[in-house]
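Need residues for this backbone.
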């Protein structure tokens, strides 16, 4: 992991298209602004972990669940 020190208003650039800017610093938090192309997805870590978990649940459908779904379409 790369660790950098930045002050309010300073930026960090990743490649040509992604820029992080320190917007505000308080004793309890730091606000960071992100600029990136629309195809680059940016998530808070806790939200990303929920998405991963939901995707795992969706991918672990049982044979009985599938049978119930199919019966619902056949009616």
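Answer:
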């Amino acid at each position: 992991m790369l660790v950098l020190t930045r002050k309010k208003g300073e930026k960090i650039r990743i490649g040509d298209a992604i820029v992080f800017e320190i917007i505000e610093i308080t004793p309890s938090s730091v606000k960071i602004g992100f600029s990136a192309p629309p195809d680059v997805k940016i998530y808070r870590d806790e939200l990303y972990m929920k998405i991963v978990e939901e995707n795992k649940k969706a991918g672990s459908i049982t044979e009985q669940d599938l049978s119930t779904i199919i019966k619902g379409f056949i009616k």
